[in-house]
Design goal:
The protein is mainly alpha-helical. Helices cover 68% and strands 4% of the residues. It is elongated.
Length: 238
């Protein structure tokens, strides 16, 4: 069963997504998480220090070159590969970054930095793959220190990924549960965040309007045109 809800005007004050404001907030959060991501890496020599310093100065191409020099000297060092992937992500070279991340995880499938970067890469890409981002973040979730800044970050990204899917492909009852769980944890850890009120309003709206368990897929369409597209896709599938 598919439940399609059209985002009607009298609900817009609660769940309307202002995409311009959302992107600005995302960039601010991503900048913070970029700094936190660099804390995963324990600097062993000047290449890490120089490269990470360049990353924080937004000099991503130069950082990539520094990490590549380090990797050439130590080809088995996965941390260099992770930081090259991060530099590529910030240059918008998401496919190249994904290939490097996959190579790292082939050697170490619980490499927390690679899992973290894999999630960020798929979330921030021009053609975002939120389902794949969730897979990466969920695998990293139990590996992240709950007392670290990255713990609020992983809850943020999982919750936001599910929220985006709710407005595009739809969510199951269980996926909606997980979305609420992670958004609530993010709000609990970040009560002073700029999007705190919006997140709480969204959580309350979902709790009030969510369908019962027998609904296979719940989609909130942002327009009648989008609603028609979802219905057409559902009919073609069935």
């Amino acid at each position: 069963m598919l439940l399609l809800m059209l985002n009607m005007s009298h609900h817009k004050s609660v769940i309307k997504i202002n995409f311009k404001e959302f992107i600005i907030k995302m960039k601010k959060v991503f900048k913070l998480l970029l700094i936190l991501s660099c804390q995963i890496i324990v600097a062993q020599n000047d290449y890490f220090e120089k490269g990470n310093s360049l990353l924080q100065q937004n000099k991503y191409k130069q950082a990539q070159k520094i990490f590549e020099i380090g990797l050439k000297e130590n080809p088995k060092n996965l941390m260099y590969k992770n930081q090259i992937a991060l530099a590529l992500i910030n240059q918008g070279k998401n496919n190249d970054a994904e290939e490097i991340i996959k190579k790292v995880l082939k050697v170490d499938n619980l490499n927390v930095a690679a899992l973290w970067y894999g999630g960020i890469n798929n979330f921030m890409a021009k053609d975002s793959d939120f389902k794949k981002a969730i897979l990466y973040f969920e695998k990293a979730y139990p590996l992240i220190d709950k007392g670290s800044g990255q713990f609020f970050g992983v809850n943020f990204f999982i919750g936001k990924s599910y929220r985006n899917l709710l407005y595009s492909e739809g969510l199951s009852f269980e996926e909606t549960d997980r979305m609420l769980e992670t958004l609530e944890k993010y709000s609990e850890l970040q009560p002073k965040a700029e999007d705190y009120k919006d997140t709480i309003a969204f959580i309350n709206y979902i709790k009030e309007k969510r369908p019962p368990k027998n609904v296979k897929n719940w989609v909130i369409a942002s327009s009648e045109k989008r609603a028609d597209e979802i219905i057409k896709k559902e009919l073609e599938t069935n």
